[in-house]
Write a structure and sequence with these properties.
This protein has 15 helices and seven strands. The chain is α+β, with helices and mostly antiparallel strands. It folds into two domains: 228 residues, no CATH class; 146 residues, 2-Layer Sandwich (Alpha-Beta Plaits). The strands form two sheets. It has a five-stranded mixed beta sheet, sandwiched between helices. α3 runs parallel beside α10 and α4 runs antiparallel to α10.
Amino acid sequence: MNSIKAISLNLLIPLFITAVFAIVIHYTHKIPNILFDIVPYLFYGLSLLIIWVSWHFNRNRFIFVIIPIILLHLGFEYFSAKGASFLFLYISMLFPLHLLIFLVLKERGLFSLWGALKVGFFALEIMLVLYLIYYPDASILKYLKLKLFAANFYPLKDVSVAIGIFVFFVMSALLMFGRYLMYSSTFLSLLLTFYLGLYFLKTPHATEVSFLAFSIIIFILLIRESYRLAFYDELTSLPGRRALVEDMAKLGRKYSLAMCDIDFFKKFNDTYGHDTGDEVLKMVASKFLEVSGGGKAYRYGGEEFVILFPSKESSESFTHVDALRQAIATTGFSVRNKKTTKKIFINVSAGVTQNSQKDKDPFAVMKRADNALYKAKKAGRNQVIKA
């Protein structure tokens, strides 16, 4: 289960934007109309930017999410009143499921079999909605307008609300237990923003502002995703070497760091295979994420990790690194083969040091920590040595 802190941090930005949208709608009568006149232009401009950036960086998930909102905006503007009401009905039921599907599906590129299937699925959705708008079926409409709740959610139908509740709980489960917190939190906020926009349809400018808020949330996710790809390790979710270099440039006058290494990792890979080795790296990285004492862990490369302790002396850092070593050493890891499951234990060694006036830069400090790590290896492994 993901920590409450991690969930809260990931929800903070998208929910803040949703909250700002709700406040704007509440005080619509106090805002000059000239500001609302530019909202559609901002929405279209930002949406086109999202499509271009998504295409450039091969993040097609965002393309499939923003294009339906653009089509919905155009539909509300150019369809007849009857056509727009049908569009509202169908999209309020289909789009939440559409969001959930593209949250769960992995990025595989547009020019692949999976990409072609996504395009085909999306095209079928559009054709289905257009067909139902131009050729409405009374029996289908009867079921879609069924009364399920005692409360009134006008202009939303009860089936739409039921689908929204279902999608909300599935996304909440993914938020609590899934690996991709950043996506789950953002898509949950997109769902709420979408429904708020539809619910306040009769409020002047509510729909346009909700679509703009929707596009802003996606654009911020794109920026965060770009940062994650540049600075975070995909396998372990720890900051990578580039993030380490950036953070070392910001260190103050006093700091300490630890170089850590998984013992006998090459032998482990040769024995159990690289797939199992990757699972071990994930497990160890999850422990490094929990390091105390204000330390921040990074994956340096392979089975090597670095922990930075800003404003800490090596004696303090040593205590926290050794506690981390013990936590890893006492955590069992299950290795499964065709017949049995074997429980093994992973050890790490570490070297800890702090900066001095003689050090020209943090890389010199890292070199001394690396020498201390080498001594820990020579001394028998599964221990921490302070340089």
